[in-house]
Design goal:
The protein has helices at 19-24, 43-53, 73-81, 103-120, 136-139, 151-162; strands spanning 8-13, 32-37, 58-60, 87-90, 132-135, 166-169. With 170 residues, it is of the alpha/beta class. The strands form 2 sheets. A 4-stranded mixed sheet has the order 3-5-4-6. A two-stranded parallel sheet has the order 1-2. Helix 1 links the parallel strand 1 and strand 2 (32-37). It starts with 7 loop residues before the first strand and ends with a strand.
Amino acid sequence: RLPITKQIIVVNDGSTDNTADSLDQLAYLDDVEVIEHDINCGKGAALQTGFQHARGKFVIVQDADLEYDPIDIMKVIEPLRTGQCDVVYGSRYLDSAEQDPSRVHRFGNWLLTTLSNRLTGLQLTDMETCYKAVRRDVLDKIQIEQSRFGFEPEITAKLARQKVRIREVG
């Protein structure tokens, strides 16, 4: 229901529950493309598959568990739409540092983000965020190798190496 033209790519990464049946109900929608992996290949592999099928000017990741409200996509892509940057990370911590009630999770995220920042020279608050929006031409220059959750630091490092303009929004 976002007020933009969009292509929605859903990659079913080998789910063994009723996910495939649920996705069959979306097949009639013009802007939805469902892709099936026969076996679970991992988040990075699912994203690689989705990226290969994406045709838009911008590409954004939305996890299927809907931990985040898709309406937030509008805020995340706005700096791309206005040409302020090439990449936008949606930070869970800019607007509300205590958003995640788990101290262990927050500490782990802080540790991984700090390590990533030291290695890349970036100053992110949430490297592990779901929302990463990238201009298509920038994404096309990156070869993703990680098939699991290693995707997060890998794409961050490769974007930093390209010296693109990266911005965070809450």
